[in-house]
Amino acid sequence: MKTVIIFDHPYTSTASENVPHQRSFLAAIYKQVVTQLKAENTEVDLIDLHADHFDPVMSAQDLANWRRGVPINDQIADYQQRLLATDQIIFMFPIWWEVMPAMTKGFLDKVYAKETLYEAGSMQTKLTRQPKIKVITTMSTPTWLYRWVFGAPLLKALFRGTFLKTRLFHFKWYGFSQVEKKSLEQRQRLIQTFKL
Question: Where is the Flavodoxin-like fold domain (predicted)?
Fold first, then answer.
């Protein structure tokens, strides 16, 4: 089994140690996820968007290529081939202003492209392995407030607006809320006990 992890955090996936202003709870969760997956004999393929210097902005030429079903550049073509060969896709990012950061949005815009990863007319995915989609996020907003007051906009955009629309039905969200208010010991316990 193969898993592609798309990691989006400015400090990158290497920021798992407790170093102030250079640490990411998400990176610590990533480390735990990789340990778990490897223990299950799962091949892990990391796409670290910031480490890869991914450009999320869609230029006029990018859009012209996208409309013709042509990969925008070699990096995008590589990402697309890796997604076509996977059994599971895990997105990891912080929730900012109630949705995904620009890198993740740009990844979806540029990589999950018509005629390459889905058919434009039928909206049928070309990911023939029907990969499981898992999303792991962190946010400052309390979970109850995010779901019941803001209406969980991320789930509407990702699950309903992207994956369900293209017939990828296996979707699960793991949200970590207000971890910045927890003690180091509480955060470590959350990391150690997390299971996909």
Answer: 1-178
